[in-house]
Here is the input.
Amino acid sequence: MEKQQFLHPKVSLAHFFHYRSSSVFVVFVGLVVLFSFFSHRRFISGGNLQILLALGSEFNIVVLGVGILMISGEFDLSVGSIVVFCSFIFIRLFEMGMNLFLAGLITLGVGAILGWLNGLITVKGQIPSFVATLGTMMLWRGMTLLLSQGFSRSFDVMASPTFSRVLTGVIGGVVPVQIVWFAGLALALGLILHFHRFGNWIYATGDNKNAARAMGIKTDRVKTICFILVGVLCALVAMMQIVRVSTFSSRVADGWELKAVAASVVGGTSLMGGIGSMVGVVLGTLIISAIENGLVVLRIPYFWTYTVFGLVIVLSVLFSRYVEARKLKHISKPSETSPGET
Here is the structure.
């Protein structure tokens, strides 16, 4: 009879922490427990979770694109400005009496164009994406303020109830549609990133652009497509926000730029490119959303939010580096198996 073998608990735990996303998961669980305890379970109440899933998922969708772009080795600091500019385009098309589904397609197209412009300036102009998107961040936010004069505009959700339900409806009276969009997009993009040839191109481009070119990968095209993806996701979220609050505001998505980068970094995505995972990005953005919501539930002044963000980012990166160092040490450790063992 074959002897059954069991892994020692310490071995299993060590193996668990070899995965980069495992440290992020521990941080997320710790935050949920912490906020639940100090808020007397208000954080995990049904009403708060519904708000968190609806509002947080909109930001989370944008982070999915930002995370993939960072893996390719680039940044996009203009996501908040793209969201607000696409919001203005959508509300103007609505005011013109256009069919909302057609207006939605046009808005997605505008988002794609803005993302393409970011990619074009970066790869053809050979300008660092940090600088290029910093400029477009101010450009599109400024254009929106000029065109809207800073005034809010109302949106009638009953103009097309079907359109409104598709973007911000509630399934079974409990689950917001936004979380379905987020989960579906995360799954689809995760499959592309980890199991499709294009995902391999993204990792290769971010890890070593010259080596990727030598292998025949069109790195400029890969980066531009990633920029376009970010623009399309921003446009989708722009429509979600207008439908949800029934109002256009020129201050929407203000500050999302650094929060999106922070969520990706917390999720284990490297600032240098070539390293990251969709699971990590999802966990990272859930951490940022949980922090923001948890501080509100605890009635802590909002200006503490960025202080906590900073601490979580630094601690998450340090913990990830520690896990990575332990993993490399384990790999390089010589085998303890004697020559006679098989």
